[in-house]
Input
Amino acid sequence: MPEPTAPLTATAAPIDLAMQRVDAVIRERLSSRVALIDQISRYIVSAGGKRIRPRLVLLVSEALGFDGPERFELAAIVEFIHTATLLHDDVVDESALRRGRATANATFGNAASVLVGDFLYSRAFQMMVSVDRMRVLQVLADATNVIAEGEVLQLMNMHDPDLAVADYLQVIRFKTAKLFEASARVGAVLAAADRGLEESCADFGRSLGTAFQLVDDLLDYEGNSDELGKNVGNDLREGKPTLPLLLAMERGTAEERVLIRHAIEHGEMNQLPQILAVVRRTGALDATREAAQREADLARSALDALPPSSARNALLELCVRSIHRSS
Ligand code: GRG
Output
């Protein structure tokens, strides 16, 4: 069975104990009297995942001097929200592989996946209410609403080769960066940080999440399915106009543009090798990595607002690992 919490960084040791506490909360709060809920939620949670969002809650709150037990609950809450979005997303995208195993939808069917996603999502809100902090509830309610908007925007952009880069960026800020932002912000709220510091933490999370999704979109073209734990080429199959393709069309010859436009419009995989060659030749992959690096640099700068500490160092390290990753 895969490691439940594979260490993300070489310097993560001090936080690993805290992550074990979070895992204990996750296991305890997954329980349901309904057997199928138990089975599916444990199926996806036990497959691991990098647990980045709960780390953000723990590390930001620790960097700002908070060590109350609510941080474990809040860290588990953001992982539940994340897992709910994955369950729903794999249905929407008809994905077959996630975290190195068959997706829940491939194993248990779409209906069960969506419904267990609903269970995890609503369980997260039950847990938030038990923490009894209105501001946290507000941050996470707003974030989940924006994530859903991001997914619908993405749906509207499918098969559109003329999508503007700014509109692509808006989708990734909404669907992915928002939960990173909310996780970091919740860490600051727990620590009762003043509004300026809270905004710096939110800026950090937003930039980190944006960098993370840019790399995700890059890995869909240059990654390795075994290492990624999900199938590469999914985005092309779905006709999703991500930055590597948008940049390749901007930089390619007229003929190359026609090839990519056609693949986006029809979600065709049979030209994948040719498209990969164009994406590489035009430097679109390098340019996507550079865009991710710029966001990671912004994230690092936002951390200047935090006092020096080992937790802040671990957050800085996360910026590096989010760019240089293969899964
Ligand atoms: C249930 C609030 C709610 C919304 C549903 C489907 C949907 C709306 C949102 C999907 C958002 C989504 C899945 C965005 C992609 C984010 C992303 C990069 C996921 C992969 O994150 P990792 O690599 O995953 O951190 P692991 O497996 O490591 O946890």
Summary: The first helix runs from residue 13 to 29. The chain has 16 helices and two strands.
